[in-house]
Write a structure and sequence with these properties.
With 124 residues, this protein is mainly β. Helix content is 0%, strand content 46%. Strands 2, 4, 5, 6, 9, 10 and 11 form a 7-stranded mixed beta sheet that branches. The protein is globular. The model has no long low-confidence stretch (mean pLDDT 96).
């Protein structure tokens, strides 16, 4: 059974940094797309960063230049380095993976596996 467990969330001041990690276990096949999503109170879930099996990355405009996604070759760990955080980044952040889809979707629909999330709170 595939399990994704996020860690690294917490409270940080505006302008600060956080590094999120996602531990992946129970995988008996190659994962394709992996990604981080977030959902703020009252808002829809949105893509934060995606990474394909070949290490190609995809960032929405708000994350470009501030966030960096990476995955290890064995797909045991997915990380998200977040810099220059602001209050708009406050949300629950989720790790996600797809078995067949090679690119993460903007809203998370179609992704197969999800962690339970880790809360990131940015104080202004």
């Amino acid at each position: 059974q595939v399990q994704l467990v996020e860690s690294g969330g917490g409270l940080v001041q505006a302008g600060g940094s956080l590094r999120l990690s996602c531990a992946v276990s129970g995988v008996r096949f190659q994962l394709q797309a992996m990604a981080w999503y977030r959902q703020a109170p009252g808002k829809e879930r949105e893509l934060v960063a995606g990474i394909m099996r070949g290490q190609s990355v995809d960032y929405p405009e708000f994350a470009r230049g501030r966030f960096i996604i990476s995955r290890d070759r064995a797909d045991n760990t997915l990380t998200l380095q977040m810099n220059d955080l602001n209050s708009d980044d406050t949300a629950v952040y989720y790790c996600s993976a797809a078995r067949y889809r090679n690119k993460a979707t903007l809203d998370g629909n179609g992704m197969d596996y999800w962690g339970k999330g880790t809360l990131v709170t940015v104080s202004s």
